[in-house]
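chain below, 298 aa
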Amino acid sequence: MTSSVDHASLPTLMIFSGSDWCLPCIRLEREIFSNPTFLNFAENRIRILKVDFPQKKQLSDSIIERNESLAEKYNPNGYFPLVSLVDPNGKVLAKLETEGITVDLAIQHLSNLLIGQSHMFRKQTLQMGSAFEFVIVHNDPNAAEQLLKMAENEVERLNNALSEWDEKSDVSNLNRNAGIQDVELNKDAYGLLERSLQLSSLTQAAYDITFKGIDYYSFNKEELSAFPDTSGLHHRLRLVDFQKIKLKPKAMAFLQDSGMAVGFGAAGKGYAADKVKLLWEEFGVKSERIHTLNQLLK
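prediction:
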């Protein structure tokens, strides 16, 4: 997946140097601007523009003309090295002190400057019986809106993939075929089922997705005092056993006893938040927050 970041909207780190005669310029290039740690930080955060004035190295006429034009505007006194952070409108935000600077100091300084140029954007959506809120820090409102919409769509997709309430979902199909036959699951449902079984084993069944009691208890405001009878509870408890979930090759799964059911109400929201975070990271997002608020009382 490729990044959707509009690089024209990013601030520019403008580096005036003499790459084959200016010793401080050569040090900065070698120790900082070619350093993988710095380049990883800069990716999708800033554009790097090297405005070079070498003595021996040959540059094309177009590059020479561009560099001279930039120098006239941003470095009229001819200082080398000179490193400036320029916003997309061409305004100089700050000049970086280069003497004694390290990779860590450069990243710290630029991070503080970029935070000052960024804004917080948020979006809420109701999915999985919860209110999801996505918060992102970005310097481009249009890009931020696209990323927030992307997050909303991803949670909606996962809700459809993991829902036990949607009769057409793989999870509902698995529950309907308990004690009858194997069922093929989508990648997300199978992966989360596998993760849930590992957690059940680790917690010695304190966490068990075969506990599907929510449709046996009433959570309506008017009926909070209504409790099921004891015999019904004992019958349900016989169907609670994560070890009776059988995972098979090719994303196939089987519930051993008729009447068993699984539900991802406890794990689905966290899984969705993790997936959104991974998706955003693929698009270069470095600062975000995702949280949910359960909507049990309706």
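The mean pLDDT is 86. The radius of gyration is 28 Å.
thats it, cya
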